[in-house]
Amino acid sequence: MAYPEGEFPGEQRLEQRLGPVLRRRDQVKPGTTDQRLLDTEGDSEWVHTDPWRVMRIQSEFVEGFGALAELPSAISVFGSARTPVGSTEYEAGVRIGQALVEAGFAVITGGGPGAMEAANRGAREARGVSVGLGIELPFEQGLNPHVDIGVNFRYFFVRKTMFVKYAQGFVVLPGGLGTLDELFEALTLVQTGKVTRFPIVLFGSAYWAGLVDWLRDTVVAGGKASESDLLLFHVTDSVEEAVALVTKEVGR
Q1: Residue 20 to residues 15, 58, 192: CA-CA distances in angstroms?
Q2: pTM more than 0.85
Q3: In sequence order, what DSSP letters do the residues of 68-121 get, joined into one string?
């Protein structure tokens, strides 16, 4: 015996359209969208569902775009939250923040302590615009006191979009897994042509030497990347050269 397409014996032919979503048979939900909205009693579990998370993600983009849209030209500075205050790396971060402001840039960091705080401090001391883009973590960090404009995010991928969208380049101080994540995100975007004229400067040749050697001797040598990919970034120990490189590549 043949049955209409998509139907089987004993099934009720039910169909429900909820905006762009079509539900049939056992997937039909009782009530209407308005009814569920206006019902003052009910389970609050809906605030933890994926559709609601989409709204939160959207709101983070809107807040970030709104807060940063009028920034002047900016450079994102990355580095470890564990860099001790007063260390050589910390003082380099302060000088980089100052020099970037003097070159006409705002300074964007992850807003935390360590190298991020150093760059924000340098920007603030130079009377520039000091921006911190924080992230919700299991352990509380908070924005450092040298941030003038701060935005806290729930989602790493939204935050990383802001780092790229509102910066004309990256300066990367010694850092850990988070810094490496941000570095390779930027390298991938430049390599694939998703962003253009985007200088990436690694500060601290001794720290980055092992990574550069591995990229050249293992990744490139093994055919997993091109020799030209090693030209996507610069390595320097000079604050002046780091600022000159980003200034030159963005046409300042």
Answers
A1: 13, 19, 33
A2: no
A3: HTT--SEEEEE--TTPPTTSHHHHHHHHHHHHHHHTT-EEEE-S-STHHHHHHH
Distances (CA, A) of 182 to 20, 43, 49, 58: 36, 39, 28, 22
Handedness of CA 143, 147, 152, 156 (dihedral sign): negative
Q: What are residue 43's phi and psi, to 5 degrees?
A: -70, 135
Token pair 């690694």 is found at: 202
Both structure tokens of 27: 């997937």
Chain segment 227-242, per-residue pLDDT in tens? 999 999 999 999 999 9
pLDDT tens for each residue of 201-229:
999 999 999 999 999 999 999 999 999 99
Q: Are the C-beta atoms of residues 77 and 183 closer than 8 Å to each other? A: no
- The three-point CA angle 169-174-177 to 5° equals 90
Dihedral, CA atoms, 171, 172, 178, 181, nearest 10 degrees?
80
Query: Tokens standing for 112?
Result: 């935390």
Residue type, 164: V
